Amino acid sequence: MSEGYRARRSGSDGVFSPAVVSVKLPMSLLNQLEILRDALGYSTRSELIRDALREFILSRHRLIGAYSPEGGGA
What angle do the packed helices 45-64 and 27-40 form, to 10 degrees? Predict the structure, then answer.
């Protein structure tokens, strides 16, 4: 992974500042996201997408045996 894509630390407390990622989605997928957002009680799409992406990444890392809480693989 290129250093340019790593999250940047915002201070000495180790908190990471979020990066903005723009994604184009078909309307049908966006509609499904909105249905899930409402049904699961997320206040924003961003929260739902973050959780979904986190679960996707964790499941793939477990599948290949390369999970690391810091990111970057085994």
Answer: 100
Taking CA atoms, 48 is separated from 11, 31, 39, 59, 73, in Å, by: 26, 13, 11, 16, 24
How does pLDDT run across 4-45, given as a tens digit for each residue? 555 555 555 667 778 889 999 999 999 999 999 999 999 999
Q: State how far the Cα of 41 lies from the Cα of 44, in Å rounded to an integer.
A: 9
Backbone angles phi, psi at 16, to 5 degrees: -90, 140
Residue 48 CA to residue 56 CA, distance in Å, equals 12
Residue 16: strand, helix, or coil: strand
pLDDT of residue 18: 82
Other residues' Cβ atoms within 10 Å of the Cβ of residue 71? 11
